[in-house]
Design a protein that fits this description.
Blueprint: E1 7-8, E2 12-16, H1 23-33, E3 37-39, E4 43-44, E5 59-60, H2 63-71, E6 75-81, E7 84-89, H3 90-98, E8 102-106, H4 109-119, E9 123-129, H5 133-147, H6 151-165, E10 173-176, H7 180-195, E11 201-202, H8 204-213
Parallel strand pairs: 2-8, 2-9, 3-8, 4-5, 9-10
Antiparallel strand pairs: 1-11, 4-7, 6-7
C-alpha cells in the first residue's frame, strides 16, 4: 500500500461464495500476505469440532447466549446456516477498524446484507464464483474424500449453491475462480485499491488545506 503518512480507517473485506468455490483458500492467502489484516471471528451455536479453539476459530456459545447478544445489539450480523446460528460480535470489529486494521469476513449473502445496512462505507464485498457447476461438484467431491463428508451433505451444498449464486449482483466485485493463484492476485488488487479510497484517509482534508496555504 502507498505510504502517505496518513492514518487510515480499516475496512471490512467480505468474501462470499458457494461452498467449494475457493473463498477459504483466498481468505488464508490474504491473511498471509497482509499482516495488518485480521480474520473476523464469528460466534456460533455449532458444536466445537476436534482441534478447534474457543476465541480463535469461533466463539462457541449456546443458543441463550447467542440470542442475548442479538437482543443487546452486540452482533453486527447473524444468520442460520445448515441448522446452526452464526454471528459477528460488534466490539472487536469496531476496535480493529478504528486502529486502521482490515477485517476479512467469510460470511454468506444474508450476513453481507446486514452489514451493508449498518456499515456500508466500511464495507467491500466480493463474491467468488466457480467456473462451472460441474467444477463446483468436482471440488466438493474431492473435499469430501478428505473430510469423509457424506454424499447427502454434498447434494445439500449443491442445492444451496444456486440460491447463494443468485445474489452475486449484490456484491461490489465478482471473481470467477478458474485459477486459484490468479484469483488471489485479483482479490489482493481489490483490497489494495479499496484501502486508498479518499474517505478512508484520516486527516487528508487538513493535509491538503495545509499544502494549499503554502502555495
Amino acid at each position: 500500500m502507498q505510504n502517505t503518512g496518513l492514518k487510515r480507517r480499516g475496512l471490512m473485506f467480505v468474501l462470499s461464495s458457494p461452498s467449494g468455490a475457493g473463498k477459504t483458500t483466498i481468505t488464508r492467502a490474504l491473511l498471509e500476505k497482509n499482516p495488518d489484516a485480521t480474520m473476523s471471528i464469528s460466534a456460533t451455536t455449532r458444536p466445537r469440532r476436534a482441534g478447534e479453539v474457543h476465541g480463535q476459530d469461533y466463539f462457541f456459545v449456546d443458543m441463550a447466549e447467542f440470542n442475548e447478544m442479538v437482543s443487546k445489539g452486540d452482533m453486527l450480523e447473524h444468520a442460520k446456516v445448515f441448522g446452526n446460528y452464526y454471528g459477528t460480535p460488534r466490539g472487536p470489529v469496531e476496535d480493529a477498524l478504528n486502529d486502521g486494521k482490515d477485517i476479512i469476513f467469510d460470511i454468506d449473502w444474508q450476513g453481507t446484507q446486514q452489514l451493508a445496512e449498518i456499515a456500508r462505507d466500511d464495507l467491500v464485498t466480493v463474491f467468488v464464483l466457480p467456473p462451472s457447476s460441474e467444477e463446483l461438484e468436482r471440488r466438493l467431491n474431492n473435499r469430501a474424500r478428505d473430510t469423509r463428508e457424506k454424499q447427502e451433505d454434498i447434494k445439500g451444498r449443491m442445492a444451496k449453491a444456486a440460491d447463494e449464486m443468485s445474489h452475486y449482483s449484490e456484491y461490489d466485485y465478482v471473481l470467477i475462480n478458474k485459477d486459484i493463484d490468479e484469483t488471489i492476485k485479483s482479490a489482493q488488487m481489490i483490497l489494495d485499491a479499496e484501502r486508498m479510497r479518499r474517505r478512508r484517509q484520516k486527516g487528508l482534508s487538513d493535509m491538503v488545506r495545509g499544502m494549499m496555504k503554502g502555495l
